[in-house]
Specification:
Pfam families: TctB (PF07331). The protein is 71% helix and 3% strand. The protein is mostly helical. Strands 1-2 form a two-stranded antiparallel ribbon. The protein is flat.
């Protein structure tokens, strides 16, 4: 099976079936109305139907996996995004959300802006997200010894 669309449809079909199976163990309805299994059940059922439809569509429109993969500049951009995400995940617990976020955002924007603008933008975005999650949404985020 060299058709990338067929692979994507099969993976989505398996994922949807797993979600459906998990949702069957939850209540669909409770005293307050919809239960925790209601949306996962119906959404996974819809995803199964769409996956099967997409599988049939990919039989006509063949896309090879080699055609889908990025090349040259696109590949470099893709790898840079992966590196930035890895830096954030590997450093957030150690140096805190703001520092890890600043480094990760800087890696993504330093080529598009001057260094000063990129640093300011990175710090600003990290601070904004930190305060939105911590203050407005009360979501605990990893912090360093300074509390940020």
């Amino acid at each position: 099976m060299r058709n990338a669309g067929s692979w994507a449809a099969v993976v989505l079909l398996i994922f949807s079936a797993l979600i459906l199976w998990q949702s069957l163990g939850m209540e669909n309805q409770n005293a307050l109305g919809f239960g925790p299994g209601f949306f996962p059940f119906w959404l996974s059922l819809l995803m199964i139907v769409l996956s099967i439809a997409y599988l049939f569509q990919t039989r006509k429109d063949r896309i090879s996996i080699k055609e889908m993969l990025p090349k040259n500049k696109g590949l470099r951009e893709f790898l840079l995004i992966l590196v930035a995400m890895a830096v954030f995940v590997l450093t957030a617990e150690w140096i805190g959300f703001i520092a890890a976020g600043t480094i990760s955002v800087f890696l993504l924007v330093y080529r598009a802006f001057s260094k000063g603008v990129a640093v300011g933008f990175s710090i600003g975005i990290s601070l904004l997200l930190f305060f939105i999650f911590v203050k407005a949404l009360s979501v605990p985020l990893p912090v360093n010894s300074f509390g940020w």
